[in-house]
Write a structure and sequence with these properties.
With 74 residues, the chain is of the alpha+beta class. It is built from two helices and four strands.
């Protein structure tokens, strides 16, 4: 399962489209950039440069969660 930390920006939409096209299961977690949610400590552990979108693959390498952030990297 993939956790998608997202806001309705063009880059955020790119990732939802990609995940839908690949048929991957994901859960959306809104990060309201208008209220500076991207600077919250919990989100900074996922995306240290405070950028959205970000994903966490709960089934990453060796079964450990892994985060990837920014649409180009995702």
């Amino acid at each position: 399962m993939i956790d998608l930390y997202y806001w309705g920006t063009p880059n955020g939409h790119k990732i939802t489209i990609a995940l839908e096209e690949m048929g991957l299961d994901y859960t959306l977690y809104p990060i309201n950039i208008l209220e500076n949610d991207q600077f919250q400590p919990d989100f900074l552990t996922i995306s240290p440069n405070n950028k959205i979108p970000a994903i966490v693959d709960q089934d990453g390498p060796r079964g450990e969660p892994i985060s990837v952030f920014e649409s180009g990297a995702i």
